[in-house]
Amino acid sequence: MTFPRGIPTVPSSIRGSAFCNITGVPLSDEDRSVVPILQNRIEETRLVIFLGRYERLPPDLDTSQNYLTMASFLQPHFDQYSFGIDVDDDYRIVQFSRPSPDFDVSNAGVLKIPESQAMPYDNCLRLHFQFCIRMYLASPPPGTQTYSMGDVEDLQEAVGVYDGDESLPEMSDPVWNSTLGGEVLRSIMARRFPTQSRIQVF
After folding, report:
1. What is the Cα–Cα distance from 3 to 15, expressed in whole angstroms?
2. Same domain, residue pair 91 and 186
3. What is the pLDDT along the chain (202 residues), one digit of tens a residue?
4. Do 76 and 125 reside in the same domain of the chain?
């Protein structure tokens, strides 16, 4: 699922960025792309619903808050939602698929932003990440274990997520050892113990 893009005006605050926001590797002008997080064509509306909350987008998406600088070979993978940035997990870079052997950002860590670059708008990153999840659920990689929303909700109800933290099983409980149980536990712990952002600022 890709969308045609126009040639964006590169914000002056990003023109001097000489390394990739994803890998942190220095880039030459030939190897560098300035990539819109959200493309204007997709988001005509200024109000989106995400996780039950109304979150306002910038009035104009042609702003430095809607751009990332990255290695040129990463741009098509970002545009096709193969990876995204999880704002609510300390700006962790999450890889959803590996469409080619030369593409791997699974160990890239967190978003890397130079002081000269405007901080990306959280809601733009969140909405892009939501598109990544939708694409992943629609066509998970071969051999990937998948779960329906019913599976997830059944497990959350079984372990007492909806009844409050005090009703959760002990950490030693085998329920947390499954792949799905581990993901549910990670989500619970991220909400229970929010940390300061680990985003790297240079």
Report:
1. 24
2. no
3. 233 343 334 455 555 557 789 988 888 888 888 888 987 544 444 444 444 444 555 556 667 788 898 999 999 999 988 899 999 888 999 988 877 777 888 888 899 887 777 788 888 898 888 888 877 776 655 555 556 666 767 777 776 666 565 567 777 777 777 777 777 776 666 665 554 444 444 4
4. yes
pTM for the predicted model, two decimal places:
0.59
User: For the chain, how many residues are written?
Assistant: 202
Tokens of 38: 């959200």
**Same domain, yes or no, for 166 and 104?**
no
Helix (H, G, I), strand (E, B) or coil at 82: coil
Tokens of 77: 């993978």
For residue 122 the two structure tokens come to: 């959280």
Q: Domain range spanning residue 46? A: 12-142
Say if residue 92 is in the same domain as residue 58.
Answer: yes
Q: How far is residue 123's CA from residue 56's CA, in Å, rounded to a whole number?
A: 7
* Same-domain check for residues 71 and 26: yes
Number of structural domains found in the chain: 2
